User: Which sequence fits this backbone?
């Protein structure tokens, strides 16, 4: 007996383990049939999971925490059953901005602190000349993309009042850059590579350089449904992990990249996937889809809560920290807790979470001047 | 009749559906309806209009842009899924089925919101029916074309009349429990292979 599992996903490289699990039949081996349905927005995924239209969803890891804590205005408690990889975002800017930054850069342009200081100089100059604020796009209010962009800027002392943050759907990133509606962005793959290949963007830094081993997407289930039938999320987690294990064998690497590229379509090549996974024998990985990267830990969930709170999107309390921690189902062999070497020493540790929160917190800003609606 | 003119924005790439919805809203007395079709730079353009309600099709990736806007504005606006309490789950489900979502400024009377959402749902559904009918008509046309082409192939191969060719195809279709159009497509495919 195989049980169908309706899974909503965004067409991103880190949905790859779902494609591979379905293509190679690891879902069947765990008694499931992955019924994969592409979506166009994280909001749709969140709502359709909350309403039971999907059984599970490829979800931004911070959204699981935000929904569980009711930060979105309504409580939709979710759990992360398995990670769909680690890291994978990158920061890219429009070529004209990259040129301005290069002129001002002092040091190695591959160092995020160097580019961030160069950006700070560009932002300051634009302020003096009373030019419009630079605009940077991320993908969702509760996203590592959002937090990574801000951490990068803080590395160089960028005046955040002189930069406007906005959300742009990933498929529109390149076009928005070309049209001058945004000047840079943080997005997951394949959108950095596609924008670069189209001549629309220069990739500055994979975010692994800022926050190594940062949880990125998880396979989320509704907390009540998962609690009632624990075996279902566990079986799905095993299928995902088996797909990752299979992809690790040298003889399967090629097929793995092919299956991921095929699942995505739209001009994504197996070579593009191999590059970001570091499986082309040349590049360091920016996105981890290996078996170890699929194991979750409560520390990762707590880390995400700290990122959310550092952005003043959540009250700070032991109770919230505790509830966040419970939102990820821990597995053996979870990777080390995330870190942000520029902001604090060593991997994130539970006992120090308030110190890390202080280190990552933005300085208090005045009243937001943006008017929306 | 609305007590105050609500500023309503429709974000939708489909001009036909947009027209159907806009007309419906106008008939219901809403005069301040703006349509944003292009998907770029949505945040700035929406901010300039400062709407009370945004109606957006669920397939539109810009839903995530609206999610960000409502955060910045200090939770003054919420998607209808959040606005509605649990007693409105039927409304939410109907909206999702129809493929429309609404972002609504806090403080609007619930009935007003409900009326607009209900209207949007019925207009979206009307559009979906239209599209189905269109697809059906197009399908019929394509079927007829395939049947004509297959008929020609059979006539030529067997040197028989049009009526005989058609009768033959109909007989095969009946025996196999298939549509004539399906048989016609098989004949065309086979002819391609045997070329």
Assistant:
């Amino acid at each position: 007996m195989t049980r169908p599992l309706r899974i909503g996903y965004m067409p991103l490289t880190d949905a790859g383990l779902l494609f591979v699990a379905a293509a190679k039949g690891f879902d069947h081996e765990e008694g499931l049939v992955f019924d994969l349905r592409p979506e166009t927005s994280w909001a749709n995924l969140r709502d359709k999971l909350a309403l039971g239209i999907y059984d599970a969803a490829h979800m931004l890891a911070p959204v699981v925490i935000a929904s569980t804590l009711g930060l979105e205005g309504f409580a939709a408690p979710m759990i992360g059953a398995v990670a769909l990889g680690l890291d994978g975002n990158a920061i890219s800017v429009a070529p004209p901005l990259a040129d301005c930054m290069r002129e001002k850069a002092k040091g190695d342009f591959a160092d995020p602190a160097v580019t961030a200081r160069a950006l700070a100089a560009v932002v300051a100059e634009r302020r003096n000349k009373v030019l419009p604020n630079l605009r940077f796009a991320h993908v969702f209010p509760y996203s590592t993309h959002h937090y990574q962009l801000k951490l990068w800027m803080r590395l160089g002392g960028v005046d955040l009042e002189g930069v406007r943050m906005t959300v742009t759907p990933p498929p529109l990133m390149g076009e928005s850059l070309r049209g001058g509606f945004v000047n840079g962005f943080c997005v997951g793959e394949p959108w950095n590579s596609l924008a670069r290949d189209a001549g629309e963007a220069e990739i500055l830094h994979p975010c692994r350089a800022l926050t190594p081993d940062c949880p990125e997407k998880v396979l989320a289930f509704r907390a009540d449904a998962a609690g009632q039938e624990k075996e279902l999320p566990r079986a799905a987690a095993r299928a995902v992990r088996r797909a990752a294990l299979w992809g690790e064998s040298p003889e399967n690497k090629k097929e793995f990249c092919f299956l991921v590229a095929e699942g995505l379509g739209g001009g994504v090549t197996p070579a593009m996937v191999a590059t970001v996974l570091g499986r082309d024998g040349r590049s360091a990985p920016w996105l981890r889809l290996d078996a170890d990267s699929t194991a979750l830990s409560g520390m990762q969930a707590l880390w995400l809560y700290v990122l959310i709170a550092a952005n003043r999107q959540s009250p700070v309390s032991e109770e919230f920290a505790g509830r966040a921690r419970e939102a990820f189902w821990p597995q053996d062999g979870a990777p080390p807790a995330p870190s942000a070497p520029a902001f604090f020493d060593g991997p994130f540790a539970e006992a120090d979470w308030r110190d890390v929160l202080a280190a990552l917190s933005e300085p208090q800003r005045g009243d937001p001047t943006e008017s929306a609606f | 009749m609305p007590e105050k003119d609500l500023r309503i924005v429709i974000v939708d790439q489909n001009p036909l559906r947009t027209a159907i919805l806009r007309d419906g809203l106008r008939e219901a007395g809403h005069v301040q309806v703006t349509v944003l079709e292009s998907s770029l730079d949505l945040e700035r353009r929406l901010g300039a209009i400062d709407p009370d309600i945004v109606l957006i099709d669920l397939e539109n990736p810009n839903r995530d842009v609206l999610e960000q806007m409502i955060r910045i504005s200090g939770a003054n606006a919420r998607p209808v899924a959040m606005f509605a309490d649990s007693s409105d789950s039927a409304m939410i489900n109907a909206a999702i089925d129809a493929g429309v979502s609404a972002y609504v400024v806090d403080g609007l009377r619930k009935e007003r919101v409900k009326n607009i959402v209900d209207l949007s749902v019925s207009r979206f559904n009307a559009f979906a029916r239209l599209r189905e009918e269109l697809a059906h008509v197009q399908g019929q046309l394509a079927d007829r074309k395939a049947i004509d082409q297959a008929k020609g192939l059979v006539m030529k191969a067997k040197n028989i009349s049009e009526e005989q060719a058609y009768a033959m195809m109909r007989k095969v279709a009946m025996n196999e429990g298939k549509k004539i159009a399906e048989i016609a497509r098989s004949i065309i495919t086979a002819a391609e292979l045997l070329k």
